[in-house]
Amino acid sequence: MAMMRYAEALNAALREEMQADPSVFLFGEDIGRYGGVFKVTKGLMEEFGETRVRDTPISEQALTAMAVTAAMTGTRPVLEIMYADFVPLTLDALVNQASIYNYIWNGQVKMPFVLRTQGGGGAGAGAQHSKSLDSMLAHIPGIKVVAPSTPADAKGMLKAAIRDDQPVVFLEHKLLYNTRGEVPEGDVTVPLGKAATLREGSDISIFATSKMVVEALKAADLLAADGVSAEIVDLRSLRPLDVNAIVASIAKTHHAVVVNEGWRFCGYAAELSATIMDHAFDELDAPVTRVTLPDMPIPYSEPLETAMLPSAEKIRTAALKTLK
Amino acid sequence: MKNTPSVEQHLEIYRRMLLVRHLEESLGALHKEGRTRGPIHRCDGQEAVGVAATAVLEAGDKVATTHRGHAVYIGKGMAVHPVVAEIFGRATGACGGRAGHMLVADAEKGVIGGNAIVGAGIPAATGMALSMQILGTGNVAMCVFGDGAAQTGICHEAMNMAGLWKLPVVFVLEHNQFGLTVPSEVQSPVEDLSIRAAGYAMPAEIVDGNDAVAVYRAVSTMVERARRGEGPGMVECKTYRIEGFSTSDMGGYQKPEDIAAWKARDPLLVSRKVLLGDVGEAKLAGIEAAAKAEVDEAFAAALSDPMPEFSLDEACNPYSEAH
User: Do A143 and B125 touch (CB under 8 A)?
Assistant: First the structure.
């Protein structure tokens, strides 16, 4: 085990996969000479050269479409889209191209590319650089969407994503890059589609991804002081979703809070709630409670932004309300 | 002239143009009988572009095309039957009936593929070229796209990167004068769209898109450059869409005198005139009869082929392992 920052863990995953497989290449804005706006690709252009690590023009639409067909023709592209807020620019390539061909062309092509991006609020970046558009992405059949919360999962899941033959959107969070954690050394992958129970509990299950897992863990401490034993399940993968892990946890606690940093209406938390209804309705002793962003743009000023983001305190309140 | 196709090559281009024309006309006839499904976009009068441009390519080269791609499918080497069967939604179709006529692909033949999002083929071919450059395959990607697609934002983004990185891609602009019903002069301030190539540091040539030999020559030059690693090129082929946008087109916006003038310069007539001097009437008549028979047989077989059965396809389901 080595202590690493989340961004360093991602960097290690990219380096190892590029060393192991010459068909892996990286492209995106500012990722080469500068090493990425969040330094995830630091040092990789020096190590692997300008053919395999490319600084690109500001062209998210075409870059994503190019990743799709590069993946179809023998390479494993890893594209960095600097902010999740820019993902709407990539949507034709995801919705109308990447997601359809495996099925529509009857299995003739593979689509092994990774679109890395980062979202989330709390950094004062304003309405066009703070969003979490998880549900928009997870809505598309044919695209995998993952959002690890720990450095160990960041490394292991990025390695698994690069080796996957389906398109994978890899969601990072700007406030997770500097978080530290133990990361297993060497070639360790974490399978996509498997949740992890980070804290066992008996009274209520709290399901979250990405930075909301950090908030949920803090909420569990607050709830412990309230005399409530909360189980924290890091879903890690939004799609495919580990339904079995969700059902198993609810079978134990009979109460559920779902947390997502995206919008509420038609949001990922709504999908989780419906999934729980489909698979574990008989286990529930109370309705599922959602903790999400309210349905409005993310404001700039600190008290305004803080007031709207989901937090440990809001998760605690939701859990107590669910248990009432 | 440099890169002029041999008589044999020209004959094969002519034969494939005939296959496409018969395919289009048979589809038109079956549409009138109510036996087709969904919109069908014919390329009558434009066959020289798709067929002669792809005739330049090698087996390992790839092509992305439009929703009007029949000439490219046949030009790049697909047999008639899997294309027709796909159009009729049969299990024997090139994509098992899942794609339909706008999205046909045959990965083995390098047709990947038709695309019904106007403009999307341009970054598609550029991405293939990026892959070829990184892997050093020595292959070339081609995009056949229209004057409508040339107005999309993604066209600029993709061509800029193609020029910037000297990618092995050739952009074949099939300028058929219309984007659905809107004429090119209502969509662009310039008549010759290929003047934009200069902004991407790529050479461009304008040719008569109804002259298969001219298309072949110009595309050959660009493909050779791209294969040598000298970067992308563009060929603007001036042609005309004789048959309207699709089978849903009510018409009324194309001038009859324009249609008549372009029909008089039908690419089949242009090639036939040259080939008549090269090989004589008997040889051409034989090729024509054989092409007609091949298409008729393909239709007869496809129309009696089985329909596919629906199932949640585990092999194509990215989530199958999770449940």
Answer: no
